[in-house]
């Protein structure tokens, strides 16, 4: 029978009444998740069909697509309603997160269908980030699987407190109650410590609609609600409107001199005209004089509303700041602990620099310590030096400038962030803030009367960090040594930080793994910054194979202070020279993680100085660098 959504809608004369009724309904956002082939997409399709929310033309298309892509023979394949990507239909899997809206007489819903494959865990986390409830599907034939545990754990981390455990394909185990009871017991056993407020198990057959909207005759032993009955009545977490006021500033709106407003969406709480608010980063206070919207001014605005706030005073507020309630202020700190879900195929490495983006702010950030990795099977804490793709851990993070945030447990909007790779601009991780690191609050900059400029003026030079990068044997140290001799002879104050020499002292505890190489460069960059602050011209000779770490070093320095010098010598020439016999040993497999052999070298894309060494003497290149420095006023 064709299901036409128009049958459930009022005539055009009653449309305003209908819209008013819809506006008054509560909204539930929920997620379907679990292992691959557990039936998530089929369940949503069946839910839409049984609640009469499929148009005639949609159903006709679905019937046609079922014949082409379906997996249910002559029957309608409801999974195709949400598996919209061609690749999904061809492979019979969900890749991206599909969102669908539907409504019943009691409630409105937004459902996110998350992919089950482990490689698409990042997509599942995206869908979970805004959900109030998760439907965790388990195939009755297979029971609880590792991906069931992974998705449940991530749902817990992302603040979901209500679980509907849908034991699907119950028809394929002859509606056996003992199978259902065993799966429920297994799930409750591992989910005990995940902090869920409720776990409601329901035996279902998504394909045939058993216990989805209508009750199943095959499960007479089940006395609980159908899925739709539970979704319509479940009471989710406390209303955000009752939480402290949080207004991340997205945009400063100043169309003319007589108007200055701050635009954004209220993350939580309520604000009224005349309310006192605090600018979180500065601590300054003001009052709300107007609440402006496209439809006119409001007297009060609540969580979820996009508004422009006008303040009584001309206070400094920029994007990245948050207007908050004076009696419930958020944290402002530059170091904090967080849960982190890693998405990228390249592992998270402590010490590497990333961009950290919150609801309204973006700052440079470094994972200073990976405290532990969580074993997804038993949730134990394991020591780790890195996080691989889809792994979860707890880490300490340091940001370049103070950040405004709440604990994620208190506010899912202002307590969440993502990490972005500086080179590729891809999202590599998602984080949930646990708490600020109090030790950071006890450390303050000490004001000094003699500054960098005064120290450099005394030396009659401009501070600089010349960062020589290139393969082992490319000639970096030779050219840097010759240049320092020239600068020293002309009365300049210099110092060389050489890769091998530093590893005899400051970095003697580091090896040559990718993690240790990152930490090696981080330490040297910090030392170089201190030396530049002393007014010196610092020559840093390190292979420094990764662009991300060289970029991190550049960002530590003042504008114009960092000079990247690419000593460009072909691998074959470096191996032929082999001044320390390292290439011969590496090629025999006696040295692991050797740059250019079994560890990559990422050549600079836009070096400040590019020295192609083929056919040139080191003295010639040292002369070229000295001339380059003089032309730009460094010496």
> How many H/I helical runs?
17
**Helical content class:** 25-40%
Provide the low-confidence segments as ranges.
1-10, 83-96
What name goes with the CATH superfamily of the largest domain?
P-loop containing nucleotide triphosphate hydrolases
Rg value: 30 Å
The proportion of residues in beta strands is 25-35%
DSSP summary, beta strand count = 27
What's the rounded overall pLDDT mean?
A: 84
User: Could you give the distance between the termini?
Assistant: 86 Å
- Please list the strands of the largest sheet in the order they lie side by side: 7-15-11-12-14-9-8
Shape: globular
Q: Domains counted in the coordinates: how many?
A: 4
Describe the structure.
The termini are far apart. The relative contact order is 0.07. 27% of the residues lie in helices and 27% in strands. A 7-stranded antiparallel β-sheet has the order 7-15-11-12-14-9-8, with no helix packed on it. The protein folds into 4 domains: 5-233, P-loop containing nucleotide triphosphate hydrolases (Rossmann fold); 240-324, Translation factors (Elongation Factor Tu (Ef-tu), domain 3, Beta Barrel); 331-437, Elongation Factor Tu (Ef-tu), domain 3 (Beta Barrel); 452-631, P-loop containing nucleotide triphosphate hydrolases (Rossmann fold, 3-Layer(aba) Sandwich).
